[in-house]
């Protein structure tokens, strides 16, 4: 198991290029099951989650090849309808296999994905949507069983307690593209990753209207074709670099930072007084001036609201921004497991219900051994370590490897003092070992 050793206070200079979006790749991988023809997916980041997804797809019977590190070739000519627990349990997003299997095979048997550290993430809206398509849905013995022999288009409302469901929208969308009749999805998620899935399906011959809106209309077709498709750049990775630069002595340019996908973050950074400029070709330049920003209040919401996947990083930024900030989590109200670790480093944060009350001070952080609890918490702790005085050891970075490609290498390329080491190289008095 690897750890990061980070010495803080280093200035950042230069350019960094973001990788393809993991959260777009996962449903796009699943969508390759909708056709027996070959699909080539480009700009795929080299991440553990995507390797797991490829393994599951291969287990279903697809031929999976990898011509190079960031390209996958998938041919799902002969596939089975059953995705077993021992594979699905490794990655919650594999539940998005339900839609393609229902559409292509008219039946599916997929293990329930289990819990998640950031809070409850039920799939009830997925199952409700499939039932609205006249599928027979049965949950027993830890598996979802779907009989779609009589499936037909229908009206589906996907609004939930915390807004639209991204993976649920992807599932119903993929189920509908090969289902006879017209399906109308209301309160559909409109995240850029959902838009990207729509564009990929359109390139395969699907008929979809309303792309990018909360209302999608799908006319089922008899078959879909293979395609070659390039996945969008990762807006969350881009946002993470922008936040890092805003809190440090920095002058960096982020390539693959598309302002139309980052409007809520850029609005808050502008409100805070950050010095950035939008350049042509998906490039944003950020110049950091530590300790000079203004505190801001943030509420996470489904797109186009502030992304929940940038909430932890924003907590870190506000910890080093003098003044009082309130960060409210409306998507996953329990998603504050990074806070105790930031407190270990000196951050003044209190949790009140679904809000973090952040009393920011200039340079309050000091290096300490910390443990990452999830993917975005990992990034937040690394950003905190880069701003802290002294040395920080970040443990459990396997979470980070699920969603950030070569993060340590990219940060080093900007001048950060970040080193990936084996757990055994960490001093025992810091790791908690006796």
Keywords:
single chain; 434 residues; alpha+beta; UDP-n-acetylglucosamine1-carboxyvinyl-transferase, Chain; four-stranded mixed beta sheet; 14 helices; 29% helix
> What is the CATH T-level topology of the largest domain?
UDP-n-acetylglucosamine1-carboxyvinyl-transferase, Chain
**Rg over alpha carbons:** 22 Å
Do you know the CATH architecture of the largest domain?
Alpha-beta prism
Strands in their spatial order, largest beta sheet: 24-25-1-26
Give a written overview of the molecule.
The protein has helices spanning 22-31, 48-59, 85-88, 98-105, 124-132, 166-176, 192-203, 235-246, 263-272, 311-319, 339-344, 375-387, 407-413, 428-431; strands at 2-7, 12-17, 38-42, 63-68, 71-75, 82-83, 107-111, 136-140, 143-147, 155-157, 159-160, 163-164, 182-186, 207-209, 215-219, 227-230, 250-255, 275-279, 283-288, 298-300, 323-329, 349-352, 355-360, 369-371, 391-395, 417-422. It has 434 residues and is of the alpha+beta class. It folds into two domains: 2-18 and 233-431, Enolpyruvate transferase domain (UDP-n-acetylglucosamine1-carboxyvinyl-transferase, Chain, Alpha-beta prism), CATH 3.65.10; 22-220, Alpha-beta prism (UDP-n-acetylglucosamine1-carboxyvinyl-transferase, Chain), CATH 3.65.10.10. Pfam families: EPSP_synthase.
